[in-house]
Design the sequence.
């Protein structure tokens, strides 16, 4: 009960602040938390990246192995994205099969990677109809400080951009080669707090929010994925305005990720 | 989307701007809605939309299962969107796959955005959607069926929830994709509108759109939702004007 009560007090505090354009952590409505990316965090993976987004930490690991293509796409590789919301990362998460939240994170991230044609799957083909590279992108949430979708995609694409195809390990070549990344999608998530819509929500803001909208953009000006989630609503005009904001944040985060660096 | 290595791509748009089934860009497939199609459920509806056939039922407000999901100050909406094994060309393994679980989540959240949940604390409003025959747009057809079923069950709501998908096919923004357009199209954008407020409570998108195309798609979708809304009201009027309360 006291948990519910304190959550209610915090929610009304967040909404009150938002009404005057303020946030609990001192950010403005369009301020993204500082982002730091550590590519190659895990040596056992073929590619990896640890993303720090404020208090949120997501580790992405990429593994490649030869396998069979899908019968309807004999000339294309296979790409699989999976997110694990392990109980280590939040008191909200429990052990067990993937929850709807985990499935949503996986699928929204997967949709952006796929729709943006981040990697050209036809280049993963080894023998048409028989053998291809299967590329697993596993997203491990380590600390859930809010906005998992953005952090997870940033980690996933950063990991892909630092992936080498392990030709040697599978006897398919004399030397490993880097995986080519053609496009760099970035997801940008917003929540509505009353009449204000804030970017990059914390856990408390997500809980207080009246609707969440994620917009994925790429570097050539395409919107490649969207997902509205949680209870709440957005007008078409809200969506159009948020698209502009998503492009701005996307451009900034992309150059940061490509530099492999740090920034707010 | 997902067209890598695909075989024969059908002609999706004729030179005079007609779609594969002869529709114009802003035309919706024929829709038939039957409110109150089942006996056991508290509310139900059957929707035929193009070649989609979808049944929806609502139970509740009733006790929450599992118990730990119960909320002290409001009702929760639990949605289960399920596709029958025989609803698609190649038999689908029965049960909820990841796609179905994601759709269940976003549809449940859409309804929780419009029902007066505070009126039924510590209860669950259970919404079941069974896709019996699928031809693109099943989540929208399911949402429409479930919304009519909620009204049929007498659940107080801000408004009905019409839904439709907009897409990009052969470079054009078009309303209500059918299967071939969905398979070989360039973008798919399902949405659900609260007609009274003009706001969207469900919005997803996959594919490639420019800013301008997205703006156009949103406007076309809102227009389509209003059309669907009229058909939903008509179905409820038919059911309750006749007052027979019988099964379809």
Sequence:
């Amino acid at each position: 009960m006291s948990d519910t009560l304190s959550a209610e007090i915090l929610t009304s505090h967040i909404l009150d602040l938002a009404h005057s354009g303020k946030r609990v952590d001192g950010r403005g409505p369009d301020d993204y938390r500082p982002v730091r990316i550590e590519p190659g965090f895990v040596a056992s993976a073929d590619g990896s990246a640890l993303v720090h987004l404020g208090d949120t930490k997501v580790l992405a690991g990429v593994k490649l192995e030869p396998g069979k293509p899908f019968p309807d796409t004999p000339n294309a590789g296979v790409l699989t994205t999976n997110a694990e919301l392990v109980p280590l990362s939040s008191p909200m998460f429990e052990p067990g099969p993937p929850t709807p939240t985990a499935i949503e994170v996986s699928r929204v991230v997967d949709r952006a990677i796929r729709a943006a044609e981040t990697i050209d799957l036809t280049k993963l083909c080894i023998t048409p109809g028989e053998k291809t590279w299967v590329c697993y992108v596993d997203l491990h949430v380590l600390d859930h400080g809010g906005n998992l979708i953005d952090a997870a995609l940033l980690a996933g694409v950063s990991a892909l951009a630092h992936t080498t195809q392990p030709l040697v390990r599978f006897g398919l070549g004399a030397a490993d080669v880097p995986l080519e990344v053609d496009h760099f999608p970035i997801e940008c998530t917003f929540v509505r707090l009353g009449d204000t819509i804030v970017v990059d929500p914390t856990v408390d803001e997500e809980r207080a929010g009246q609707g969440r909208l994620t917009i994925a953009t790429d570097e050539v000006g395409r919107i490649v994925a969207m997902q509205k989630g949680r209870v709440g609503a957005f007008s078409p005009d809200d969506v159009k305005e948020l698209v502009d904001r998503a492009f701005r944040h996307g451009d900034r985060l992309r150059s940061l990720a490509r530099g492999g660096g740090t920034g707010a | 989307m997902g067209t890598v290595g695909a075989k024969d791509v059908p002609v999706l748009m004729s030179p005079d701007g007609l779609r594969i089934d002869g529709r114009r860009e802003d035309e919706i497939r024929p829709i038939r809605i039957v409110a109150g199609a089942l006996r056991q459920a508290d509310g139900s509806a059957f929707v035929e939309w193009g070649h989609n056939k979808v049944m929806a039922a609502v139970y509740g407000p009733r006790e929450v299962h599992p118990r730990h999901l119960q909320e002290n100050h409001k009702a929760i909406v639990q949605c289960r969107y399920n596709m029958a094994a025989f609803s698609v060309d190649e038999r689908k393994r029965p049960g909820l796959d990841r796609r179905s679980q994601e759709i269940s989540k976003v549809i449940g959240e859409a309804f929780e955005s419009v029902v007066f949940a505070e009126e039924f604390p510590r209860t669950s409003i259970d919404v079941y959607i069974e896709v019996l025959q699928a031809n693109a747009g099943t989540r929208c057809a399911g949402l429409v069926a479930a919304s009519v079923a909620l009204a049929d069950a007498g659940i107080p709501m801000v408004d009905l929830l019409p839904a439709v998908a907009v897409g990009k096919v052969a470079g054009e923004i078009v309303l209500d994709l059918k299967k071939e357009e969905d398979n070989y199209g360039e973008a798919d954008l399902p949405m659900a509108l609260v007609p009274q407020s003009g706001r969207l409570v469900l919005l997803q998108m996959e594919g490639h759109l420019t800013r301008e195309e997205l703006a156009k798609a949103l406007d076309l979708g809102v227009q389509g939702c209003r059309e669907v809304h009229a058909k939903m009201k008509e179905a409820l009027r038919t059911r309750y004007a006749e007052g027979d309360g019988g099964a379809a």
Observations:
- The mean pLDDT of chain A is 94.
- The longest helix of chain A spans residues 236-259.
- The domain at 28-263 of chain A is CATH 3.30.230.70 (Ribosomal Protein S5; domain 2).
